[in-house]
Q: What sequence folds into this?
């Protein structure tokens, strides 16, 4: 079915970068104040549950993308319609991430450059990589995963060396009890970043080693989740909760403070680049998922043909979704409790249910007639 | 598809020799054959046709034919002409010519390699390759004796890939010598050599060598298939051949390693790669090639592992510098000044004072100047070399700075870049760095580090899309292969390596060129 | 197609680089580097007077680029405005080049402004991406920031560097000043249960003389900058200067002392023994008493004997014990005094409130509202452990008979 294949290691890298993607830039779960890191940590388990849903569907239809089994389960038209809805959703998600980059770059390194130009460069670079195919994307992700990990290890080493970390700033733990934490978990941290993993429902058929998918997926979520928990924790210990909640880009503000031997300082540009790498791959995943969805739905043979037009649509969407960056972030909060749950949890759950019932039914039938093979 | 520039190209069908396609018989009339030969060779003064009579009564007409200059005159004189002149038993005019021919073939010619030719095309080719032919009147087969012997460059020290410690011999222009240089290092029957002739006009001999049992059969078949598919008039250098058999054309990255060192070729053979030798050039091609191979020097394996590892890391750093130094300078000084340490910033700012060009233009001028100097240095006659280097040093180093056109820091940056590009062990991998450096400079001038990181991701993706004979170009980094890390960025000592990896270097072995699906269980 | 895309990308890049783009590109000679930023309060023409110190790089570096050594290494500009940004914009009317703030080393606040409240100025420093979180905050004691910045200094070519280094060196060797980053200062502003601190700088000598080049050409300059005192803030307003030992007491508690010199009594002779404190570690915990929370401070000190002006056998274990005891006593006194001062001003610079919040969150919620009344009454227990670990190169002093 799918010719290009990615290894489970590459899937792991891609999943990691995807999760780091924008969350390192803008942060998540800050409604839980000092306990944001706990909220993210709990979010990991929500993420794993979500992944189980996608995995269940993947196991039933290992060769099909979400569009494929949606049509199988709900019929060509209803399934197709829901599939159709996924396309704007994925494009919207890609556009949001692109906007994040525009905002980040605009606020830090290129303050006077129009964000159309910044986003344009980004989306065309992504388009170039996607032309080379899914496999190239995944293998490139593998390399940059290594780079990001090395840079973040260096970064946290610098944090320790410069003596900025002050654990006292996150104490007391659970100052206001579990309530705000749980609140933040289900309004923010499950959906962002983990709910966005629904994009992988379109990419799972590319993985060559099917047996390892579950293991790799869960370990990927765990590792990336723990890393973002760690990063949030560092942000809080360095900046204090007040500054973190006030900052648009908390990690950057934290890194700005690093000062070692009057030589290693002003590292924020390097941090920005690291963040750009994450967002690059995250956007690429959404973008490619949208391409896969379109190709599946409209039976397009050559996916390459879709890449350029989609790039323009994403670019345009990223410009029009919000008037300014704060509005964009605000809209993001809204999307996290409306659009994302519907697409990331709602529909997949529905499919799971139908698939489960169908399977039961077919087993039943199977038991009686002893003729049909399974679906 | 290919740009057809060669006027000979159209005559391809006529001149093509195709072994079985158009077999021309040789006449049994000697005079006719001689006439035909002189017709084909025209007024060529090099062809020597020596008629003589042999036999008891000196009544059997025999002709020996060779190209002057391609043969070893002593060999021809002593072992062919001399033996023909000797009285051969009791032959005379009436003996069946077949017996005469066989007698000459079996007993008379005192050369080790004597062949029988019965095809006209083959005959012409044999003459052109420097063999001496013996024709007998009245028989339609011809004897050829290997008498090649022309002036050749002796085996010398390598000039482009030198080592401090290690063998000092290098390949020469002679295919035979080159094969021998490899063969004498591997005394194993599994070392196989297969020879092709490529080029409808030049008929260049091309040999491939591989270790049977170590090199993958798929790889060998693929190499052969590609060689056979070549459709050209001539192959003059291995570089010509490289362009025909490489996987991707539109990329600055070399997809085959070239080497003039027999020890490097041997090492690669033992790793399961295929070595392609082209007659007339001291550079052999090694396939498949991965990006990281270009950073390995045979000397890595002759020195202790610790220093070899450090040097290898240094080479990656040097490559990085030669690729990025000017663009990083541009990005830092025109976009991200806040990243510079305070004293350095003040220093650079003081230097910039009064420089008329933007940093990007400044860098461009200097880089182009440097490329001009480099090109001049390579092409010009040796005698004027000194003059160019003096002018270069004065123009770049002194006058530009003195005049305030270029800031001194820029000269340093360009200098570092230049030195770095020479310190990369393989000349062919320095070339993409040379080209991409300019792209990076443009991206740095456009959007600072942001533009650069995007271009770097694109470059990585581009390299990831490359394959050399089916092997992913960035193997073993991506797809990641843990076992191969023992000898990629670092070189572990053999004893440690054995513990680290059970198999031998499986970079090539696991590669599956026919199936586009690389093994990737990283 | 992929190639075409690459071509499009590159063309875009080239076109931008050469013709239209590069919105953010600025060459090094397009801007001048700001080394220090001074903020003063004014009455007329707006709220603030902003003073910036611009660096003249060729003069700093020297060499042939320097214009015959006539111009000075830095230049001071100042302008007034209702907001900091409007004042800074007004400065650009005077300067030929754009100002460049990321290298601002110090931010000096005039005493008058500090006393009337500085909570508003930190918004710009946080919001604007050109400002970093690392500049040190200093308060111009009894003077304006403008005057302080105007003093040229010997040894250091850039006055801002001089300010920075003076405050750092005196902090390190005397333990009576503190270098505070903007980030930290701002954080303490906004946090509950802690108030910020900053070091002061003052001018010795007449400040008019200090502004000319001749000031640094003399071996005894007329004007000098001195790092002195620690300013206590309360709700964004400077409330009190503390000096010397009192300042040291505060720094002991907040664990900001690297080195300090303490003079102790020696046998009968007073103040005849110099002890240098080499390492101080302070921890404090909040615990709950019946009524309100209380604070336990624990200080651990390591010290060396530096100078002995009396007959004392420092090789003797008993005298070492005596010194340790004296040192403990002295430190305790200093801390007690410091806490007393803080309580007088009702400014919790130590962060006791934060500690209570951290360790007794429930108690904190009860007292948060009226912490101002509780702080002066707060029970504080101090325990000091001092250890003399070195006595120098001699066992006993030569005056011993």
A:
């Amino acid at each position: 079915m799918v010719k290009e294949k990615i290894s489970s290691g590459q899937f792991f890298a891609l999943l990691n970068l995807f999760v780091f993607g924008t969350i390192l830039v803008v942060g998540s779960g800050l409604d839980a104040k000092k306990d944001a890191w706990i909220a993210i940590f709990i979010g990991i388990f929500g993420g794993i549950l979500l992944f189980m849903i996608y995995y269940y569907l993947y196991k039933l239809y290992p060769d099909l993308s979400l569009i494929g089994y949606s049509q199988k389960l709900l019929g060509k038209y209803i399934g197709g319609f829901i599939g159709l809805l996924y396309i704007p959703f994925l494009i919207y998600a890609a556009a949001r991430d692109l906007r994040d980059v525009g905002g980040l770059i605009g606020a830090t390194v290129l303050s006077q450059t129009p964000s159309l130009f910044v986003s344009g460069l980004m989306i065309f670079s992504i388009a170039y990589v996607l032309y080379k195919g899914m496999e190239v994307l995944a293998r490139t992700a593998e390399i940059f995963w290594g780079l990001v990990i090395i840079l973040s290890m260096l970064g946290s080493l610098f944090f320790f060396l410069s003596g900025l970390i002050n654990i006292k700033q996150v104490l007391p733990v659970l100052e206001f009890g579990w309530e705000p934490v749980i609140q933040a978990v289900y309004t923010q941290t499950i959906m962002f970043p983990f709910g966005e993993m629904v994009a992988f429902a379109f990419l799972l058929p590319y993985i060559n080693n099917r047996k390892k998918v579950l293991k790799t997926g869960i370990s990927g979520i765990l590792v990336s989740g723990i890393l973002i928990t760690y990063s949030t924790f560092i942000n809080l210990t360095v900046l204090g909760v007040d500054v973190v909640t006030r900052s648009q880009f908390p990690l950057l503000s934290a890194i700005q403070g690093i000062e070692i031997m009057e030589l290693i300082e002003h590292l924020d540009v390097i941090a920005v680049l690291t963040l750009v790498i994450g967002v690059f791959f995250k956007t690429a995943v959404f973008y490619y998922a949208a391409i896969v969805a379109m190709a599946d739905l409209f039976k397009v043979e050559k996916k390459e043909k879709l890449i350029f037009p989609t790039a323009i649509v994403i670019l345009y969407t990223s410009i029009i979704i919000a008037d300014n960056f704060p509005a964009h972030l605000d809209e993001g909060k809204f999307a996290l409790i409306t659009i994302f749950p519907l697409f990331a949890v709602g529909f997949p759950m529905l499919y799971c249910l139908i698939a489960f019932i169908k399977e039961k039914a077919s087993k039943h039938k199977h038991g009686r007639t002893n003729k049909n093979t399974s679906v | 598809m290919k740009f057809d520039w060669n006027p000979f190209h159209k005559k391809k069908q006529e001149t093509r020799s195709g072994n079985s396609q158009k077999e021309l018989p040789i006449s049994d009339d000697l005079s006719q054959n001689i006439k035909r030969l002189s017709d084909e060779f025209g007024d060529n003064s090099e062809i020597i046709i020596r008629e003589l009579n042999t036999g008891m009564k000196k009544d059997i007409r025999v002709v020996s034919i060779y190209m002057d200059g391609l043969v070893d005159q002593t060999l021809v004189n002593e072992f062919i002409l001399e033996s023909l002149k000797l009285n051969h038993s009791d032959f005379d005019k009436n003996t069946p010519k077949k017996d005469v021919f066989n007698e000459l073939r079996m007993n008379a010619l005192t050369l080790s390699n004597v062949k029988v030719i019965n095809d006209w095309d083959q005959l012409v080719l044999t003459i052109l390759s420097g063999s001496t032919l013996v024709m007998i009147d009245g028989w339609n087969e011809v004897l050829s004796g290997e008498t090649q012997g022309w002036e050749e460059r002796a085996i010398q020290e390598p000039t482009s890939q030198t080592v401090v410690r290690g063998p000092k011999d290098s390949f020469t222009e002679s295919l035979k010598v080159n094969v021998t240089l490899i063969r004498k290092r591997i005394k194993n029957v599994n070392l196989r050599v297969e020879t092709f002739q490529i080029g409808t006009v030049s008929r260049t001999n091309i040999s491939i060598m591989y270790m049977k049992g170590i090199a993958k059969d798929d790889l060998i078949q693929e190499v052969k298939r590609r060689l056979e598919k070549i459709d050209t008039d001539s192959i003059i250098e291995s570089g010509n051949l490289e362009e025909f058999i490489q996987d991707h054309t539109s990329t600055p990255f070399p997809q085959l390693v070239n080497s003039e060192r027999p020890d490097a070729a041997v090492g690669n053979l033992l790793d399961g790669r295929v070595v392609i030798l082209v007659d007339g050039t001291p550079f052999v091609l090694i396939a498949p090639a991965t990006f990281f191979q270009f950073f390995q020097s045979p000397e890595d394996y002759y020195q202790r592992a610790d220093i070899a590892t450090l040097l290898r890391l240094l080479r990656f750093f040097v490559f990085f510098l030669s690729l990025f130094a000017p663009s990083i300078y541009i990005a830092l000084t025109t976009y991200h000044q806040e990243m510079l340490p305070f004293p350095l910033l003040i220093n650079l700012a003081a230097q910039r004072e009064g420089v008329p060009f933007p940093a990007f233009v400044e860098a461009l001028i200097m880089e182009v100047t440097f490329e001009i100097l480099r090109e001049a240095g390579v092409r010009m006659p040796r005698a004027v070399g000194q003059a160019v280097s003096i002018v270069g040093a004065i123009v770049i180093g002194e006058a530009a700075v003195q005049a305030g056109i270029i800031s001194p820091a820029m000269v340093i940056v360009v200098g570092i870049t230049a030195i770095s590009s020479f310190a990369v062990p393989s000349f062919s991998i320095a070339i993409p760095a040379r080209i991409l450096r300019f792209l990076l400079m443009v991206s740095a001038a456009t959007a600072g580090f942001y533009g650069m990181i995007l271009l770097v991701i694109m470059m990585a993706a581009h390299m990831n899309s490359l394959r050399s004979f089916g092997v992913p170009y960035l193997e073993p980094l991506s797809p990641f292969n843990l076992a191969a890390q023992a000898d990629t960025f670092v070189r572990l000592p053999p004893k440690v390596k054995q513990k680290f990896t059970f198999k031998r270097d499986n970079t090539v072995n696991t590669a599956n060129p026919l199936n586009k699906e690389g093994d990737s269980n990283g | 197609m992929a190639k075409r895309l690459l071509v499009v990308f590159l063309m875009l890049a080239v076109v931008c680089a050469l013709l239209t783009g590069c919105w953010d590109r600025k060459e090094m000679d397009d801007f001048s580097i700001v080394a220090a930023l001074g903020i003063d309060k004014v009455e007329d023409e707006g709220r603030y007077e902003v003073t910036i110190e611009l660096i003249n790089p060729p003069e700093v570096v020297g060499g042939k680029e320097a214009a015959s050594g006539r111009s000075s290494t830095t230049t001071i500009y100042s302008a007034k405005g209702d907001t900091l940004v409007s004042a800074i914009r007004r400065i650009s009317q005077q300067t030929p080049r754009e100002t460049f703030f990321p290298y601002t080393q110090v931010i000096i606040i005039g005493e008058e402004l500090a006393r009337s409240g500085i909570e508003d100025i930190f918004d710009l420093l946080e919001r604007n991406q050109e400002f970093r979180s690392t500049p040190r905050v200093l308060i111009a004691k009894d003077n304006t920031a403008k005057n302080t910045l105007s003093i040229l200094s010997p040894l250091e070519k850039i006055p801002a560097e001089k300010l920075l280094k003076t405050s750092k060196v005196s902090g390190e060797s005397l333990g009576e000043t503190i270098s505070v980053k903007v980030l930290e200062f701002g954080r303490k502003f906004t946090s509950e249960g802690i108030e910020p601190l900053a070091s002061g700088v003052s001018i010795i000598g007449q400040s008019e003389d200090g502004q000319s080049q001749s000031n640094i050409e003399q071996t005894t300059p007329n004007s000098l900058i001195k790092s002195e005192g620690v300013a206590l803030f309360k709700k964004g307003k400077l409330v009190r200067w503390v000096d010397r030992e009192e300042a040291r007491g505060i720094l002991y508690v907040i664990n900001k002392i690297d080195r300090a010199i303490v003079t102790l009594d020696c046998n009968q002779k007073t103040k005849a023994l110099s002890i240098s404190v080499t390492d101080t570690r302070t921890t404090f915990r909040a615990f709950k008493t019946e009524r309100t929370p209380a604070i336990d401070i624990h200080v651990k000190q390591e010290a060396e004997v530096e100078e002995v002006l009396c007959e004392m056998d420092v090789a003797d274990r008993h005298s070492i014990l005596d010194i340790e005891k004296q040192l403990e006593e002295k430190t305790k006194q200093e801390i007690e005094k410091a806490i007393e001062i803080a309580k007088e001003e009702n400014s919790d610079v130590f962060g006791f409130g934060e500690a209570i919040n951290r360790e007794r969150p429930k108690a904190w919620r009860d007292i948060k509202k009226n912490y101002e009344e509780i702080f002066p009454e707060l029970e504080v227990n101090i325990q000091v452990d001092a250890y003399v670990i070195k006595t120098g190169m001699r066992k006993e002093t030569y005056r011993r008979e």
Observations:
- The CA atoms of residues 73 and 358 of chain A lie 8 Å apart.
